[in-house]
Amino acid sequence: MRFNVKRFLTSRHALKHGASLFALAAGLMLSGAQAAGYNAGWGFDEAGMNRAVQPGDNFFEYANGTYLKNLKIPGDMSSYGPFRILYELSLSRQKTILDEAAKKSVDQPTDDMGKIGTYYASFLDQKAVDRLGAKPLAADLETIRNVNDGKGLAAAFGSSLKSMAFTTFQIGVEQDQKDPEHYMLMLDQGMSIGVGGGLGLPDTSYYTNPKLADKKKAYQAYIAKMLTLEGWPDAEKNAQAVVDLETALAKVEVPRDQTRDPIKTYNPMPVSELQKLAPDFDWATFLISAGLPAEGLENRKIDVREPAGIKAMATVLKGADIGTLRAWLAFHLGDNAAAYLSSTFYDASFEFNSHTLSGVAQQSPRWKRAVRVTNGALGWALGREYVARYFPPSAQAQITSLVQEVKASFHERLEHNSWMDEPTRKAALNKLDHFAIQVGYPKKWWDYSKLEIRKGDVYGNAVRGVAFNWQHDLDKLDKPVDRDEWGMTPQTVNAYNDPTMNEIVFPAAILQPPFFDPKGDVAVNYGAIGGVIGHEMSHGFDDQGRHYDEHGRLSDWWTKASTDAFQKLADRLGAQYDAQEVLPGAHVNGKMTMGENIADSGGLNLGLQAYHDSLHGKPAPVVHGLTGDQRVFLGWAQVWREKDRPDALRQQMLSNEHAPAITRVNIPAHNIDAWYDAFDVKPGQKLYLAPDQRVKIW
């Protein structure tokens, strides 16, 4: 389980029914680059621009307008753009691997290829799964029926870490943020890390905002449908009670935008103190049921991220009717397990989670779902084969070299930073110098020898996969931190910064067009992958990352003067995003998206700086009538040319730390002086900012 320590380039992939999140318009026989409208001749889709729009009025539209106008989001997608295209390309490549592996499917495989093939082939057998109906849930539902008190609820929550069941409290094993050479338990209220927690709706606002009442009503109907499929009594009555319970929980959770301060959310304490903090829940039973040893448990340290939220949620649960709690557990079991059950379960889940919440019109093919669930259970086994086939050593060397170039440019920018004092500057340079750079794939792979996969046992395979992954985390406790372990498989189209590791990671799947083309235009590459690299580096110095030192320790290494200067700039940047009304009545939350916004601005600045440095004083060539600086900015803009369904976009704005695509292009650009020069942006144009209003952090 991953808490909100890592900073990802995009997190849309993490939403339920990932099929609706990454798209390919037509024909997987095309390369991802061709499908994107990408021009393999020099790396930029010039035809996708809308030159009728002035770049100073809407740079996003100028760079991408024609492409987006003609773009149709595929029926099984909630959005479409470069990330989705490469995700689909990655899926198709993984399908090739899995189709071959499936030919070797056996009853109980022992090697990795046999396991991924058997897992995948079993899931593909829709008819066999449909014949089982709700039978796979029988044992888990019986366990839920036997929950009779608070102790039973705590035991059910704990055992859920090893099954498809459910817990409102999120627990995991992560590095101690003040002692990053050691692991410790982490406890989170749930919603603040975007994984759902005790709430089935994407954000607390879905429970309390009258404008979203239709979604809440649909959610209640979905709960009733799921309970009916499970054979649970009084489905309609229980559905209303479950919604009321989750509404009560939503009202006491700490809001997302108040959970960004890593100092305030670092609250290590022994389990005995947690019990005193939140006495309305049986924490010992919860943890023992999750697999923690009883011996010495009361003294084991656990980092409680939101003490006030945890305490309040425990109180709500204590006051809840036991019948409602059982129905709540039963519903979420079915919701979590729907992908592994008969079509009736999955259809109900899709109708609400994908169609109602995100506007997706149709389900993705079963083979795509099969690839995704195989990834969830055996992602590193699949990743090793993916790297062997699709990521040449030359690509790793090229990207590593480019990362070093961007790092050198960041070093230069820090040296000339105008608002940072010398003590803080010196410490910042030291942190940058200590950045670990990971490209392509990890040095070590997971050992799946203890994970049992059985042919035809779709639900059982999924449960054993969950239990295996959880045990993998538990086994870290009381051991030194493994700095070779990654938090993302190489076939993932993303990148991340891990502040407790002080490292930046670029998986293999993102290192291809339109993000990076070794034969493409240099300036476009610096705007695209250079901007992505700079984005991840900037995360080390955003509103959260700046609190971690060169060793990944949570520490106060900034002077008060530099802290105050940073905060003033961050507040000004946040206000720019707050002012963006992307949908009618829906503004960007500048505080919730602060870290990503700082990283976007820093990333574009660093991509541009690295391009300038690469010229070594020589004039930049003009290509297709576009100057070097213009191509850097356009390369960045092309990366974010995404179209979203309105419901999906609204959901993102309420629950995602990443701002919408249009703001990820326009706001960083209009804070950079060179953008005004490159596109002759003048006062009176919509994006124009006076020089003293432009925010320059990194």
Automatic annotation (TrEMBL):
Q: Has the keyword Zinc been applied to this entry?
A: yes
Chain segments annotated as coiled-coil in the UniProt record:
none
Q: Which organism is it from?
A: Gluconobacter oxydans (Gluconobacter suboxydans)
Q: Where's the Peptidase M13 N-terminal domain? A: 55-442
Report what the protein is called.
Answer: Peptidase M13
Reported cofactor(s):
Zn(2+)
Query: SUPFAM superfamilies from the xrefs?
Result: Metalloproteases ('zincins'), catalytic domain
**One Pfam family per UniProt:** Peptidase_M13
Q: Where is the signal peptide?
A: 1-35
Homology family:
Belongs to the peptidase M13 family.
Q: Which GO terms describe its biological process?
A: protein processing
* Keywords from the named record: Hydrolase, Metal-binding, Metalloprotease, Protease, Signal, Zinc
Annotated Gene Ontology MF terms? metal ion binding; metalloendopeptidase activity
What InterPro entries does the annotation carry? MetalloPept_cat_dom_sf, Peptidase_M13, Peptidase_M13_C, Peptidase_M13_dom_2, Peptidase_M13_N
Q: Which CDD domains match?
A: M13
Q: What are the top taxonomic ranks of the organism?
A: Bacteria, Pseudomonadati, Pseudomonadota, Alphaproteobacteria, Acetobacterales
Domain (Peptidase M13 C-terminal): residue spans on this chain = 494-695
Q: Show the GO cellular component annotation of the record.
A: plasma membrane
| Superkingdom assignment | Bacteria
